[in-house]
Amino acid sequence: MNEKRHGCWWTAAAALMALGAADAARAGEIRIWPTAVVSAESVRLADVAQVIGFDEERSRVIREMSVSASPREGGELQIGATEINASLSEAGVNLADVNLLGASRCRVTRPRHEYGSTLTVRPLQKSGPAIHQPQVVRTASSTPAQGVSANTLESTLKQFITARVGEKGGKVDVRFSPTSKRDLQLDAGQYQFDIHPKGESKLGLVTIEVDVKAPGEQARTVPIIAEVSVSCEVVVARRAINRGETIEGRHLKLEQRRFTDYSQVGLTDVSAVVGQQARQFVRAGEMLVERGVEGKPLVRRGDAVTIWIRQGPLVIKASGRAQESGMLGEKIDVARDGSRRKQDIMEAVVTGPSTVTLGNEQRVALGTEGTRHE
Fold this sequence. Notes:
By secondary structure, this protein is of the alpha+beta class. It contains six helices and 23 strands. Strand 19 and strand 20 form a beta hairpin.
């Protein structure tokens, strides 16, 4: 019975060795580029590195593998060997079969995309009673909204609302109430439009009154109700992120979402999230918000810490234990080793991983031992 078991074991081992030899034969290289430019919502490995020497199917899988969410438009982020190795491992690739070469980090940038036309709206003062009439100024690149006839009240209102909201936060979308369909088709070449927004709200349900006047006719007021929203890319969890977990680029993606309230817009910059830790559990597909992330403490309560104490020209190195957690630049209480009295607890500034400084908050953590004079 034992011989039979041993025989099966050796057979399985031989099969594994043969498979390992075959995999080793298919081992390849991944050469990281120093810079890359992306336009999609996620960064593929093929965007930041060259894949060489793998068999055709494995090469295709590795090249298309996502290593991070893209930075926001006009932004950038850094992707290095650590992130690439983590993504390869998560995808089930044996790291022993991969030679990682090239640059240590790749700087990934994403060009800014310009939306639509450029418009400005200026109120004009006429003589006599104060009459505010918006003047729509079109630039050479100004074009009517898709599906909207040029020189109508609808196109004029869409351009007016877009200019009023501004497109820095995303692409503006305007939808009018069907009850105004007939008035929206009025020809701007035959009528004069005097637009008056009612209230300060720029997003959501917006009410606008338009004074419509034709030559030789008395003006009439047309009420218009529009739903105004902005569409922008926000940072979304690609997979569930646990509370306290350090967030990496491969955990995130950018998704285009529509908002009718600026207060509902979450984080839009991936680079501002990577390296932070989650303050609460984040579900897959959930948008990340500012209050949901926090800086990762460099010192945690109970950690052994190095204490640099500056007394005039004298700098003393000591060891101690943190009494509370703290991020870079924060003040925390620390106790020197061997001290048991509460009055010996000192307030120090976190200046590095497991490192605090007293006496000079700007001093960086030193790597030398003992005491020295400056």
